[in-house]
Structure prediction request, 244 residues.
Amino acid sequence: MQDLSSQQNVQPSIDEVVVSGILSARIRPGTRLSENEVASLFNVSRTRVREAMMRLEQRGIVKVSPRRGWFVVEPSAEEAIAVYAARRVIEAGLLRSMAPLTESGRDKLHAHLAEEKAAIAAGDRQRLTCLMGDFHIRIAELSGNPILVEILRDLTARTILISLLYQSDFHAMQSHLGHCRIVAAMEEGNFSKAAALAVEHLDEVETGLDLTRRPDPLADLRRSLSLPPQSVAAFPTAPRKTRP
Prediction:
């Protein structure tokens, strides 16, 4: 048995903290992750930070910009389409292969749906973003396959980054009802139906994305100054020079 004090002193890894921050919508696309600052926060060397960032880069969570450092990715429209395609394949296959729900599993899913409903009633957008993504990870956890949990956790984090960039309207109730239908099918033991509903749900979410939008490079400053949001596409372009 491990010493309790040693357990309490165990810190989550840099990788875990970054992914958790994205899943909870606290870390946004394009956020700069300074090696010096992260090293100070975790009281580790820059080498340790760099190693963590390289692992996150392999997972598609961060990218490095020459002479500028590490940044949370801003998925392109093409990457968004690929992420949703991957999720359809993985989540449909996962649900088709699942064993019948146990009472404990059923209770966990119902507790999660209750949290979603409470967050909708409270109008807590950040909490909802976290819960909507977490629902799919909860299903993976019920499968008992840690590899699938890890894959879906990363894909869900990338999906949240996509939503923050391209989702103009957040249809929380529509997503919640989609989750309710999936759970109902699982309770019936009809996992083929649950898989089809999961694909339909992902289709609906992807359809709600505006993949023609481009990130606003001044978003952080705009929020700080309480200015209204504006897409890059709407920015005025410089007049073309005409020959005399």
